[in-house]
Amino acid sequence: MVSSARGIELSAGPRRVGMAVVGLGGAVATTAVAGLELLRVGASDTSGLPLAGVEVDGVPVAEATGMADYADLVVGGWDLDGSDLRKAADQHGVLDHRQLEQAGPYLSSVTPWAAAGDADFCRNVTGGNVVLAETRRAQVDAVRADLRRFREEERLDGLVLVNLASTERWPDPAAPALQTVEAFEAGLDADDRSITPSMVYAYAAIAEGVGYVNFTPSLAADVPALIAFAESRGVPVAGKDGKTGQTMMKTVLAPAFRSRSLTVEGWYSTNILGNRDGLALEDPDSLESKLQTKGSVLDSILGYPVEDHVVRIDYYRPRGDQKEAWDAIDLVGFLGQRMQVKVDFQCRDSILAAPLAIELARLTDLAQQRGQAGVQTQFGWFFKAPMTPDGSTPEHALHRQERVLLDWVAGAPAGR
Amino acid sequence: MVSSARGIELSAGPRRVGMAVVGLGGAVATTAVAGLELLRVGASDTSGLPLAGVEVDGVPVAEATGMADYADLVVGGWDLDGSDLRKAADQHGVLDHRQLEQAGPYLSSVTPWAAAGDADFCRNVTGGNVVLAETRRAQVDAVRADLRRFREEERLDGLVLVNLASTERWPDPAAPALQTVEAFEAGLDADDRSITPSMVYAYAAIAEGVGYVNFTPSLAADVPALIAFAESRGVPVAGKDGKTGQTMMKTVLAPAFRSRSLTVEGWYSTNILGNRDGLALEDPDSLESKLQTKGSVLDSILGYPVEDHVVRIDYYRPRGDQKEAWDAIDLVGFLGQRMQVKVDFQCRDSILAAPLAIELARLTDLAQQRGQAGVQTQFGWFFKAPMTPDGSTPEHALHRQERVLLDWVAGAPAGR
Amino acid sequence: MVSSARGIELSAGPRRVGMAVVGLGGAVATTAVAGLELLRVGASDTSGLPLAGVEVDGVPVAEATGMADYADLVVGGWDLDGSDLRKAADQHGVLDHRQLEQAGPYLSSVTPWAAAGDADFCRNVTGGNVVLAETRRAQVDAVRADLRRFREEERLDGLVLVNLASTERWPDPAAPALQTVEAFEAGLDADDRSITPSMVYAYAAIAEGVGYVNFTPSLAADVPALIAFAESRGVPVAGKDGKTGQTMMKTVLAPAFRSRSLTVEGWYSTNILGNRDGLALEDPDSLESKLQTKGSVLDSILGYPVEDHVVRIDYYRPRGDQKEAWDAIDLVGFLGQRMQVKVDFQCRDSILAAPLAIELARLTDLAQQRGQAGVQTQFGWFFKAPMTPDGSTPEHALHRQERVLLDWVAGAPAGR
Amino acid sequence: MVSSARGIELSAGPRRVGMAVVGLGGAVATTAVAGLELLRVGASDTSGLPLAGVEVDGVPVAEATGMADYADLVVGGWDLDGSDLRKAADQHGVLDHRQLEQAGPYLSSVTPWAAAGDADFCRNVTGGNVVLAETRRAQVDAVRADLRRFREEERLDGLVLVNLASTERWPDPAAPALQTVEAFEAGLDADDRSITPSMVYAYAAIAEGVGYVNFTPSLAADVPALIAFAESRGVPVAGKDGKTGQTMMKTVLAPAFRSRSLTVEGWYSTNILGNRDGLALEDPDSLESKLQTKGSVLDSILGYPVEDHVVRIDYYRPRGDQKEAWDAIDLVGFLGQRMQVKVDFQCRDSILAAPLAIELARLTDLAQQRGQAGVQTQFGWFFKAPMTPDGSTPEHALHRQERVLLDWVAGAPAGR
Fold first, then answer.
1. pTM confidence score
2. Which one of A379, B160, B326, D118 is least enclosed by Cβ atoms within 10 Å?
């Protein structure tokens, strides 16, 4: 990222910020924890961390803005699987041998808190580390208690809850319980099942004044009730669905095709991945959530509907976390003549996602320092389906999102 | 392209602008001529023409700025092959059957003027349609006479010379004759061979007050002598090397990799093409010119040198004008872990290039109307190696070039 | 194909053989009809016809074996869409402009006979050209009448029925009606719905002593009742599912991986196609039939089960009949180390299939001349799921199938 | 590989066979040594070793034929770089962390003998471990002494010299010194520079009665003088150029295209690799040798010349030994219509080559046991440019080569 800037008063002293992660044992979260540890012990550098090299008026961004340093992030969180993160990292196979050895002792010391899961919403991922709270309201109380304890025990200056759990199926977004704060709270008491586990966490975070980030395709805070709740409590919320591989590329290529007036006649995208996320997406309902956030980007960038936009995700184990995304794009150019582009992105899901989750924690804490409440549209650069306060169409083109983000970091007012 | 705007006084009446093309019988030029004719007779639409849908404050760009309409462009030009364009189009195989039939009668009526070629600079492309002018000075005079005749016979309001010839080898850019206007003119008289055919055309255009566009990798106007000459005569010049396929994609993807802090460890690019341009590049000297303009873009966008940046171009006949560009990109991300992207662009050289050449003619005429002399840096969006007045590093990222271009079109002052 | 041979008595005089095609208006059949016409008028050569260059002991195969010449094939058949083949060819977009013009007059003269369809078995393909025969028995009688009429009117020496219809869903192969000839005939009378339309045609052909080829994934003759019926009536049957694109490549690559002891850890295959076949496969039941015939080849060639063998087919319109098959193959080699192969086959479905269908008609007629009844295992080279008389695992490796086929053509006894 | 068989008398007792390797420190040889050690200690299995699972009449091949077991191979050899193999393995980066640890102690104990190199023939690979023998004859004597010492010290029952060195440039194959044994020996004495280092080794091996395998594109034993010498001394020789990646795939795909009568209009192949072999090929003379062995396969398999067959090899470091081969194939099918296949083989050079080198040592020793002298054409399956006794065109199709090889292993007489 390139710096861009305006003068800003500097914050004093290191700022200690907590990341409370839903899905702490997953590949993305484990990679984030390991990565921060490797950074701390000097076994890795900041490569892949988008804000690491950004400067504001020639001053490193953390110093210039008061954003927390990577070294001052403290990660804890929940997972249905209670294994320590060393075991989790072994399973995920993201770290190489040397990294596992170097981060291993620290990872062994991190054990997820009991989670508020619900097999009904995410069928292919289960585990025994479930909180003993059967109703939605009781789950909220348990999560809030975890957040308070985390803040106190770690003496945190800031705290952000980041949802990195596997995708859950969407409830009906028009369900009455999701429309107003009052209805939502009544729903919690009535154990209304249109309130999903991700919403339980989002509500708990907001209630505790904790910034909230949804890195998954789950609906989570993207309902009127929780947006209003965040605004009323002065809490920033951001989401949804981290834009890492294929969709990221799409939001890079589509603006170029538009720039050159090449009409996109069709865009076929298939993804193969073999990690826990892939398994979760074997459940058609979870897949449906994912496809929804992936599908919307093209038409809004191009300015016309692409009738043959097909997106596939298939669980395919041989390469584990090493996801592959193949795109076949059909273009029509001058004189109606056709051309094709194929893109094969052999990426690593967690290696792309973990640094984004880390930056989002730092940025959301900064937003909270700046007193910004509600949906943080300036973080759209991170997401496949950026939330907007009113459900309007967000900006999807990566380069325009970058400009908005960097301007905001440098001190420009948020908003589109 | 997206419109962007500031108020501008509208020009009145249709403006008739000539495009005098070097290499008129080539695939790009023939496609441009055929395309304009198909537009005129309503057999094709403006798809693929980047400025066709641009508006300034809600007003179509031509109307808002006084830019010539597609219908008001008149194309003529030189070629070493004196065949009429119907024959040329048959050979190139770019147009489909129906388009050949519809544009055929008009194409038959267009015959290239005798060209000022020099087998020494472009060995694999020859022909018998050569002007009887052996010295550089005599060639200049012949070209100037052609331009005057074209302007008068067609009663043109504006005239732009566009170089679409096959790539010629570079002379030593430090040759004395290329450093000052005086030295250059002395060189013309002395028939100095560091003055190449493309420079003869460029000089002749500037001397006649005709805007100049270099769409090829040849050095042409990109020498101090001709830049100074253009400035002194108040003539706009633009170049060099149209950015159509692989390099265009590179300047789209590289900014995204930088945005995400993905380090480019290596980028292997190979091109296979079977048209006359591909044949010209079988000559190692011409290839050298091409690779030079292709090589520079990555490092400047990324901000660090990519040590393994390999670019290959191979002549391969089976698909003629249907070029294929394959890229293998090696990325390093978070925790030093590696990922790969492959891009296979099965494009059509002339279909991508012809509309850019057309837009450049319109834009260069607009620049001349606006009284802008010398290097038009705001046209960098069109070129692999955008000229700068002082040889400084140009902007290469497509999205930033687009913004500069559209701002200028809408009336913002040029310059970086 | 390479010739291989043993002496054979030559047949005398041209042999006129009919191809009665189910799905005559489809892309494959239309292309076959057009191709034979273009051959007859000398507007195309035998390129792509696998047996065209085969010799037996130095004598061209037709002459050596008594196989019908391409010029002596007569094509007729059924289709739910009653349009003439010129209209069909226009829609399919397989022929180029010149070919459409040259074959057009003949194609206009060919109109499909009314078909015995059943929307229940192939939901996305419908049409109004349906025979007025509501029960299975009545349909059989109508088809038999068509065959008799065709044979007489065209004074045919031989006749083969080739199923090129869109894929229909499979009935339960264990259904009682499909187990014995008696049960099947009772089922026809009782209008048993486990008897599918493709079985109606197969039964009718056998009953008429007409050779039967199933080029589709439909179950058709591949049930005990019809195999026994063919044997008892002395009729050759062959099938099923023409092996043209991705599966053909699979049966070429997999034997090589086995030869080199490269273990296939996973094989991900996706297909995108936009013709009528693709549309038919949008129906999940038809898709199921297709995936069944595609899935079996790998394990039997490799000698071990490939756990991650995923096959996808997606309807994607931009390229019509120009199908694309993308394979991602994961290999494990020496020291357990991993390698990958990607294959992108941009093929033309009908261009690959039509010549195979033509050769099958000639070969099946030859089998009938040779008095071979029942399943023709030596034709396995043509099929994704070669039928075997007893349902045992067939040979799938293309090169071994080729040897079997050529040996049989040259006169070796059939059988494995 | 599949077994095939005829009864054979079994040899008794383990047979200890030496592999004397030219280029012992290279990636292929180091991987072979490490692999055999990992097999011995049970840290790896026989995956990737083509003959491991072959049986003759139900009996494992080694037992059935008297071929040496993997465990009974002893590897030694020469290298210009005198580092021990542990250091070499570290550099090559082929083994994973655990394999390096397990094979490390053994690898440390293996140090290459001083080599008879000649910078003139292979310019980009140099080292200090050169034998002090300046003339060709003195080099021969040194190599012979090494072979005798190796045989005695290791009490070997058989010995095979395998050339795994980097590619050297070709001398003129028509040079007089290479035509007869007498001329060759005179050339050794006269230090004739048309005798290359690889020929020195080949001659020394044959003179010592040691079987010879040339796994590289160097000319080596493929000259009349050395073939005659091998025949006269009763020594088997085999070569040349191991067929591992792209060419292997070519000899799999081309027969299939021929089988289906798909005409190959063009075949563009590019290779990128970053290991020591790749560096050696930066020398245009060495590259020339390589391209020569790669170029010949297509035309002979297809039966017609492919005019646009382009093969590129580029040195590209990011992936070291992990070579990538990309093929773009243009096919013409029925009705002259075009199709394309792209193959991207992301392979590991040494992982593919090492097991082939190991099998060749075992097989050449078996040939020697069987008393077969001269060129072993039945080993063509292993090579890009299989030697033939008389320089006639060899069989290139992988599946036919496999049949020949397996028949020979099972006891059939050699020869084509």
1. 0.92
2. D118
